[in-house]
Write a structure and sequence with these properties.
Elements (H helix, E strand, L loop, with lengths): L10 H6 L8 H6 L2 E10 L6 E9 L2 E6 L1 H14 L1 H4 L18 H19 L2 H4 L2 H6 L6 H16 L7 E6 L2 E6 L8 E8 L3 H8 L12 E11 L8 E9 L6 E12 L10 E8 L11 E3 L1 E12 L4 E11 L6 H9 L2 H14 L2
Parallel strand pairs: 9-11
Antiparallel strand pairs: 1-2, 2-3, 4-5, 5-6, 6-13, 7-8, 8-9, 9-10, 10-12, 12-13
Amino acid sequence: MAEAPGAEIDVSSLEAELHAIELTPEEWTKAEVAIPDITETQAFGRSKLKTYYNIHVNGSFYRGYRFSEINALNSSLKKDVPAVAKNFPKFPSKNRLSLGSSTPKQVEDRRAAFQVWFKFVCKQLPLVQTATFKKFVMLKPDIDEIDKDLGEKVADLAQIPEGQWKETQNKKEVKIWTLKMEDSSFLVVRTYVKVKAPLKYVVDTYNTKAAWGNWQPDMKVCKTIEFIEGKTEVELPCKEIIYAAYRVPVLSNRDVCLYSKRFSGVPGNHAEENKATVLSMSIQHPACPHVKGMVRGNLNVSDTRFTAVDGGAATEVLSVLHMDPRGMIPATVVNTMAAHAVDTIVDMRTYMEANCK
């Protein structure tokens, strides 16, 4: 089935949908809950997929959970309220999917069983009043776990031998390399450019969301959902949740929900004053629900390093990105576009150099 062409994005209406759902125990018992789908993510360089079962509440995405999280809730509720828990619907077996990779049918059977089980739980006031349930439905994601996952992906990037990168473009003083990764149809892309502007200016401009439209005009929305650390987008260090939406003229529009962390130096050494780093990856967040008409892309990992050169007069920008736009776009089209994305990088450099004071 072909994708519907992306319509013009109504920015105000879209931003109105970016809010979290807060429910009291009583509201949980009356809510319409469902687990209609799953999300699968892959740690960079690893074949094993992580499966998240997406809980929707009253028709809106709430949060995705791993099997281990739902299984822990099941075990705890049995101890907290045994009189009610004895009537639980059948819970999926832990061992059933542990022998190698799961099949689509196994994942679907588990999703359906989770849905029946979770619907039952939400209707029982003694269960949803427990501290265990309240902690389970906390809206804020586990940043420590996300940081660990992102750190592992970045460490894997650092282990790639230089000889495995294939140079695909070297023009207009921009270099692009690509890497074929096992278990993924989409290439890993590395880009290099030198901007004739000081490090702090380049990093600040790169982290200013309103500036991105100058080199990515199809980005119609880019906003901070929540600051985890820091209070401004140009502050270092900073951790934040970001939502971005792109208009795609021929295909369905795309959006992403990202966790981004920025700091001086490099991973493992934040004391290098002539360098700065921006790391990002897709996450699920209740204040970034799935939006009608959008295909939610998955940024597996992005690692951008800034280094002051030429006595501080210029900044080298080296970025590595692995992205799955999802939907019906053929991987060959995505890979071809990514391998030849010189113009976007040139536009970024031109904007930064022209506006540096």
